[in-house]
Amino acid sequence: MTKAYWINTFRAISDPARVAAYVDLAGRAMLAGGGRFLARGTPAAAFESGVLERTTLIEFDSVEQAVTTYHGEAYQRALAALGDGAERDIRIIESIP
After folding, report:
1. pLDDT for 14-44, tens place per residue?
2. Residue 53: which pLDDT band, with cuts at 50, 70 and 90?
């Protein structure tokens, strides 16, 4: 089975308290969904069009597992807690077999 990687970047944060609530709920939802946090924080370096924005990399056993976690009730509660507290970009990609 091909692994999948959920990449979450925060383009802008307007409400740090809402982001903190999201981080707590989302982290628990991703772990419960089988995710493993590989990296998180502000990049050490960014090149070309790169921006030094908070980024999280979570590994899942499959794309299906990651997408199911995203649509799951627990993660949707995290999104509700975040509301408009941040502008983000989320991508789920497959690893190279």
Report:
1. 999 999 999 999 999 999 999 999 999 998 8
2. confident
Structure tokens at 79: 């999104």
Mean residue pLDDT of the chain comes to 94
12-44: burial string, b at 16+ Cβ within 10 Å, e else: eeeeeebbebbbebbbebbeebebeeeeeeeee
CA dist 2 and 10 (Å) reads 26
Instruction: Using a cut of 0.85, tell me whether the model's pTM lies above it.
Output: yes
Largest separation between any pair of C-alpha atoms in the chain: 39
Which domains, and CATH codes, for the chain? 4-44+51-94 (3.30.70.100)
Give the span between the Cα atoms of 33 and 12, in whole angstroms.
26
Residues in the chain: 97
- Looking at residue 95, the DSSP 8-state letter turns out to be P
Cα separation of the two ends of the chain: 8
